[in-house]
C-alpha cells in the first residue's frame, strides 16, 4: 500500500505538470496604447467569462489543482483541528447587537452546524431564545441556481426597541442580500422580501425612530458582467408592509441631481439615535474621507429634497456620531494620527473644531464610544499595541486593560447610558468581552461561553518589532512562533501581507497562524505601507504612484527574517488576498528567487484593466485612474500580470478565486496563472483553483472556508518541505 500511495502521489504531480504544459490557456494578444505607452495583453480573451473556451480552460485548471491538493499527505490537518477547536467550546457567537432596553441579539453557530442562527437574550443573563434558522429561508428568486441550502446570515439589525429585527441573507459569496423582517415576540416573518442590497457591506440598515421601517442601499443592476454593475445606487426608505417593488428613493444621484453624486458612489442614509433631529447622507466610496450631507428628519419623511452639505472630502472627517445638535468625529485634517473633535450642526466648523483629544505622536486614535460618563477611545501603536482611555470633564485617563491587547473593540448604548463593553484580543489571546464599571474600575466578563483550552498552543510566543525598509522607513512586523524553535534558517515561514485602503492588520486570535507555529513554523505579518497602522500618511505612502513601497516593504521584511535566520528562501511562503494580491504578485515578479511559495486569494493582479472589472471603478481612488497619464504609470508598475517575464524561475504558486466575486473579477486570477504557466521555467507547480460556490472569500459556510484554508496551508507546507506533508518513503 505504501508503494501504491507513493506512486499515486508522484504520478499525480507529474501528470499535473505535464497536463498544464500541454494545456496552456489560449492566447489572443491585444496591444493597447495608453497615453503613448504600448502595452501587450497576451490573454485579453480570458476576460470573457462566458466564452466556452475560457470556461473549459479554467475548469480544467481547477480540476488539476484539486487533484494535486487532495493528494497531499496530511492535507486535512488544518480542517480537522479547526473543527476540533469548535467542538471544545461548543459554539461561537458574533455580531452582538444590544438595544437600549437591554435586549441582546446575536448570531450563534453550534459545533457541527453549517451556518449561524439568530438568537436573543433579554439581558445578558436572560434565557436564550433561537429566533431564526437560515435553513428555513425561502428565496424570492425563482431562478434555477438558487436553492434554500447554503444561505448564510451576513448581518442582523434590530429596531431601536428590539420589537423587530431585519435579517440579511446571502449565498455563494455573491455579496447580494435578501432581507426579511421578523416580529420578535411571536417570530412572525413579514412576507415582503427586500432584494438587490447588501447591508453588511454598504450603509447597513438604519431604522426609523418609530420602528416602522428603515433605510437601505439598493443596487439597480446586479449582473456581475454588466458595465453598470452596482452603479447609480440609491438609498431607499422601506416601510414594513409595503411592497419592496415600490421603491421610495430618498437619496441618490437620480433623486438629488443638484448634489452631483457620482455613478460609482454609494449614497447611504445614517441614523444614530431615534430622537435625533437630522438624518445624515454619506457618499460611500473607497476612501475614509467622504462627502456628507444632512437634512431635517421631518423634511425627508415628507418627501422633501433639501439636503445640505455637512462637509466635503477636504475636511478629512470620518467616524461621525450625532447627539442632538452636537457632532463628534475623528479628524485627519493636519493630523495623520487623527484627533477626536466636536462641532455642532449650526457652526459646522470641521476644519477648526473643538479638539477633545489632540493628535498623539506615536499612537493612532481609532475607535471611540460615547457614554453618560464621558468618551472612551482606543489608540494603537504600529497597529498592534492597543490602549484604552476615558475623556471625562476634559481630563484624559488611561484605563488599564484586563490583559495586554493588540486589538480593543468598544460598544456602548449612547450618551444617555453608562454601559460600555470592551472586547480584547491578541495574536495568542482569545477574544474576551467585558463590561466595564467606571465606579469600581473593574471589568466584569461577559463572554457568551467558556474560554477554550488550547494546551497544544502553550509554547507560542509573540514578538512585535520594526525593521528598516529599502529607504530606511521603520516597518512594523509581527512574529508568531513556538518558543522552542531554532533560528537556523530551516523553519517554514509564512508571511501574510495586505497594505491597502488604510486597513490595519489588527491582532486577533488567529488559530490557523498558531497551528502553523505549532508545527515548527514561523508566521510573520508585515504591516506594510498602504495600510493604516501608522496613520493616514502610512496609507498614502502605499497608494497610486507610491504603491511600490508596499511590496518593497514586504521584500525588506523577508530579507530581515532571512538575515536573522528565522528562515531561508527555500522555506518561505507569502500570502495575501484581494488588494494584498498586488503585494504578493509584485514581490514574486520583482524578486522571484526570494520566495519558495506564493499564495494569492481573490487577488488584484491586473490593475491596468479596471475598466473591465465592474465594481473596481471605486478602487481607482486607491490605485489610480487609467485615464490619467500620470496615474496610469503607477497602475502599470503595480500590475503583476504585466511584470511576468519569460524564462524566469517563479515560486510554487496557488491562486484562489471565486466565480461569484463582485469585487475582483476572477479573470484577473485566470490571466495571471495563464501567463505564469507559459513563462516560468521552474518545475514548481502553478495552480489555479476557482471556487464555483464562492466569491470574494466571505459570505460562505464556515466549513467551506476551513476547507480552503486547509488546502492553502497544506500546499505551502508541502512545498516548503515539512515532513508531515511529504509522500512517505518506501523502505
From TrEMBL:
Q: Name one GO biological process term.
A: proteolysis
Q: Does the keyword Metal-binding apply?
A: no
Entries under InterPro entries matching the protein: AB_hydrolase_fold, Pept_S9A_N, Peptidase_S9_cat, Peptidase_S9A, Prolyl_oligopep/macrocyclase
Tell me where the signal peptide lies.
1-19
> This protein's superkingdom?
Bacteria
Q: Name one GO cellular component term.
A: cytosol
Peptidase S9A N-terminal domain location is 29-444
* GO terms for MF: oligopeptidase activity; serine-type endopeptidase activity
Identify the EC number(s): 3.4.21.26
Give the matching Pfam families: Peptidase_S9, Peptidase_S9_N
Kindly list any coiled-coil regions of this protein: none
**What catalytic activity is recorded?**
Hydrolysis of Pro-|-Xaa >> Ala-|-Xaa in oligopeptides
Q: Which keywords accompany this UniProt record?
A: Hydrolase, Protease, Serine protease, Signal
- Residues covered by the Peptidase S9 prolyl oligopeptidase catalytic domain: 514-721
Q: Which Gene3D superfamilies match?
A: alpha/beta hydrolase (3.40.50.1820), Prolyl oligopeptidase, N-terminal domain (2.130.10.120)
Q: Write the protein's name.
A: prolyl oligopeptidase
Amino acid at each position: 500500500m505504501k508503494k501504491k500511495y507513493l506512486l499515486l502521489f508522484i504520478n499525480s504531480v507529474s501528470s499535473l505538470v505535464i497536463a498544464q504544459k500541454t494545456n496552456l490557456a489560449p492566447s489572443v494578444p491585444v496591444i493597447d496604447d495608453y497615453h503613448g505607452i504600448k502595452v501587450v495583453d497576451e490573454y485579453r480573451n480570458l476576460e470573457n467569462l462566458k466564452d466556452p473556451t475560457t470556461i473549459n480552460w479554467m475548469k480544467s485548471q481547477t480540476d488539476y489543482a484539486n487533484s494535486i491538493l487532495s493528494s497531499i499527505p496530511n492535507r486535512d490537518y488544518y480542517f480537522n483541528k479547526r473543527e476540533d477547536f469548535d467542538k471544545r467550546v461548543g459554539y461561537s457567537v458574533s455580531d452582538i447587537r444590544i438595544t437600549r432596553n437591554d435586549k441582546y441579539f446575536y448570531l450563534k453557530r453550534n459545533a457541527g452546524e453549517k451556518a449561524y442562527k439568530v438568537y436573543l437574550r433579554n439581558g445578558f443573563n436572560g434565557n436564550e431564545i433561537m429566533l431564526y434558522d437560515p435553513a428555513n429561508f425561502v428565496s424570492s428568486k425563482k431562478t434555477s441556481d438558487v436553492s434554500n441550502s447554503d444561505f448564510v446570515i451576513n448581518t442582523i439589525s434590530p429596531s431601536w426597541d428590539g420589537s423587530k429585527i431585519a435579517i440579511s441573507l446571502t449565498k455563494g459569496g455573491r455579496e447580494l442580500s435578501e432581507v426579511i423582517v421578523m416580529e420578535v415576540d411571536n417570530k412572525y416573518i413579514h412576507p415582503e422580501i427586500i432584494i438587490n442590497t447588501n447591508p453588511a457591506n454598504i450603509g447597513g440598515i438604519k431604522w426609523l425612530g418609530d420602528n416602522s421601517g428603515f433605510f437601505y442601499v439598493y443596487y439597480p443592476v446586479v449582473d456581475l458582467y454588466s458595465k453598470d454593475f452596482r452603479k447609480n445606487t440609491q438609498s431607499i426608505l422601506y416601510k414594513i408592509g409595503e411592497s419592496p417593488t415600490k421603491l421610495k428613493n430618498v437619496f441618490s444621484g437620480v433623486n438629488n441631481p443638484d448634489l452631483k453624486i457620482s455613478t460609482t458612489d454609494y449614497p447611504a442614509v445614517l441614523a444614530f439615535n431615534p430622537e435625533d433631529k437630522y438624518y445624515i447622507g454619506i457618499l460611500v466610496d473607497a476612501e475614509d474621507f467622504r462627502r456628507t450631507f444632512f437634512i431635517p428628519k421631518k423634511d425627508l419623511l415628507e418627501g422633501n429634497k433639501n439636503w445640505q452639505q455637512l462637509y466635503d472630502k477636504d475636511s478629512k472627517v470620518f467616524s461621525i456620531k450625532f447627539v442632538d445638535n452636537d457632532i463628534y468625529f475623528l479628524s485627519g485634517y493636519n493630523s495623520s494620527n487623527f484627533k477626536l473633535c466636536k462641532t455642532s450642526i449650526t457652526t459646522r466648523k470641521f476644519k477648526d473644531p473643538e479638539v477633545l483629544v489632540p493628535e498623539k505622536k506615536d499612537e493612532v486614535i481609532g475607535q471611540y464610544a460615547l457614554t453618560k460618563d464621558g468618551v472612551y477611545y482606543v489608540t494603537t501603536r504600529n497597529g498592534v499595541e492597543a490602549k484604552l482611555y476615558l475623556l471625562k470633564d476634559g481630563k484624559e485617563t488611561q484605563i488599564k486593560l484586563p490583559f495586554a491587547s493588540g486589538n480593543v473593540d468598544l460598544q456602548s448604548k449612547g450618551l444617555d447610558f453608562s454601559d460600555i463593553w470592551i472586547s480584547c484580543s491578541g495574536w495568542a489571546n482569545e477574544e474576551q468581552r467585558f463590561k466595564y464599571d467606571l465606579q469600581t474600575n473593574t471589568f466584569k466578563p461577559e463572554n457568551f461561553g467558556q474560554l477554550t483550552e488550547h494546551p497544544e498552543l502553550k509554547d507560542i510566543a509573540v514578538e512585535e518589532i520594526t525593521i528598516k525598509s529599502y529607504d530606511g522607513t521603520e516597518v512594523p512586523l509581527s512574529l508568531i512562533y513556538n518558543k522552542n524553535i531554532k533560528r537556523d534558517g530551516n523553519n517554514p515561514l509564512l508571511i501574510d501581507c495586505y497594505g491597502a485602503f488604510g486597513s490595519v492588520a489588527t491582532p486577533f486570535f488567529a488559530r490557523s497562524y498558531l497551528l502553523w507555529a505549532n508545527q515548527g513554523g514561523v508566521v510573520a505579518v508585515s504591516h506594510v505601507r498602504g495600510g493604516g497602522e501608522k496613520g493616514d500618511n502610512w496609507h498614502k505612502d502605499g497608494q497610486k504612484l507610491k504603491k511600490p513601497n508596499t511590496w518593497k516593504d514586504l521584500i525588506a521584511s523577508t530579507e530581515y527574517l532571512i538575515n536573522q535566520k528565522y528562515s531561508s528562501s527555500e522555506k518561505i511562503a507569502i500570502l495575501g488576498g484581494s488588494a494584498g494580491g498586488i503585494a504578493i504578485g509584485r514581490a514574486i515578479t520583482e524578486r522571484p528567487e526570494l520566495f519558495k511559495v506564493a499564495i494569492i486569494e481573490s487577488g488584484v493582479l491586473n490593475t491596468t484593466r479596471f475598466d473591465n472589472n465592474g465594481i473596481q471603478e471605486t478602487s481607482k481612488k486607491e490605485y489610480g485612474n487609467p485615464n490619467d497619464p500620470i496615474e496610469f504609470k503607477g497602475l502599470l508598475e503595480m500590475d503583476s500580470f504585466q511584470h511576468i517575464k519569460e524564462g524566469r524561475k517563479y515560486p510554487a504558486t496557488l491562486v484562489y478565486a471565486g466565480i461569484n466575486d463582485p469585487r475582483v473579477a476572477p479573470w484577473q486570477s485566470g490571466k495571471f496563472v495563464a501567463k505564469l504557466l507559459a513563462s516560468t521555467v521552474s518545475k514548481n507547480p502553478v495552480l489555479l483553483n476557482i471556487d464555483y460556490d464562492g466569491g470574494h472569500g466571505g459570505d460562505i459556510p464556515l466549513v467551506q472556508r476551513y476547507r480552503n484554508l486547509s488546502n492553502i496551508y497544506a500546499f505551502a507546507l508541502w512545498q516548503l518541505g515539512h515532513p508531515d506533508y511529504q509522500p512517505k518513503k518506501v523502505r
